[in-house]
Amino acid sequence: MANPTARTRGTGSPARRTMTAAARAAAKRAGRPARPERAGRQEERTPSGSDLLVEPPADGWEAPPEPQSPQSPKSPQSPESFESPEGKPEDGAPPREIRRSVLPAVLGVVLVAALAAAAVLGWQYRQGRQAEQARGEALAVAGKAAPVVLSYDYRHLDRDFSRARALLTGHFRDQYGKTTKAVVAPTATKYHGVVKATVATPTDGGAPAVSVVSATPHRAVVLLFVNQLTRSTQVSKPRLDLNRVRMTLTRTSDGWKVSGVDAL
To answer: What are the tens digits of pLDDT across the range 143-160?
Structure first.
């Protein structure tokens, strides 16, 4: 059933129309549409083309809220609103402070690795240079030591053995002293033995037959071709023996010394 008051134009007290208009104005400011039935009633009650006089309430109109700028710190669209309390963006990207702290650490690791690689390469280069130097030194020492260590004369055995021991080191020096004293000296004295050793050389007068098998800065192995000429009362004429000798040399505080001799 229709509202009887809707059929009568201009009916209703002025105070009621004033309160209804004030309610509509307040609803419009708050962003809420007026209730349909009340709005309909008001449209029916308000004559077309007439002006409404709205009296302000006793405590005054409430000021509408001011719109906030997108750049305001409290605006929902500001960059700070997308960050968590710890300073980390909500999209999962690491904060700028973490990236700045990780970069020096990565650079430090790369620098340490580069320095380590340079140290290894430098050590290998130095070892190679020292090994090459050791080859030349051991080769020269072996060529001079072989004739002394492998020669003796029954007429001055003590002098020959003493000169040989000065070129030896380690366990081989002790073994040489025992062997020459217990075996070589009695036999050479009894049969007037004389052994003269020389490093073989080519017939055309080239370099002696000496070569380095292996070498490190502190140890070297040298292969020599040695000729031994033996005289004694046991043989009617001098006997020539062609021998291959492997000589081991060790670097000591007194220089390169012979630490082993093996006949091949």
So the answer is: 999 999 999 999 999 999
Neighbouring residues of 241: CB distance < 8 A, sequence distance ≥ 6: 227, 228, 229, 230
* CB within 8 Å of 10: residues ≥ 6 apart: 45, 47
d(CA 130, CA 252): 15
State pLDDT tens for residues 224-259: 999 999 999 998 899 999 999 999 999 999 999 999
Nearest CA to 195 among 155, 151, 148? 151
Whether residue 177 lies inside any domain: the answer is yes
Question: Based on the number of CB atoms within 10 Å of its own CB, is 183 exposed (0-12), middle (13-18) or buried (19 or more)?
Answer: exposed
Expressed as residue numbers, the domain containing 178 is 139-263
CATH number for the domain harbouring residue 147: 3.10.450.230
pLDDT tens readout for residues 185-196: 999 999 999 999
Report the alpha-carbon distance of residue 153 to residue 232 in Å, rounded: 10
d(C-alpha 23, C-alpha 114), whole Å: 80
pTM for the model: 0.54
CA-based nearest residue to 249, from 208, 214, 221, 212: 221
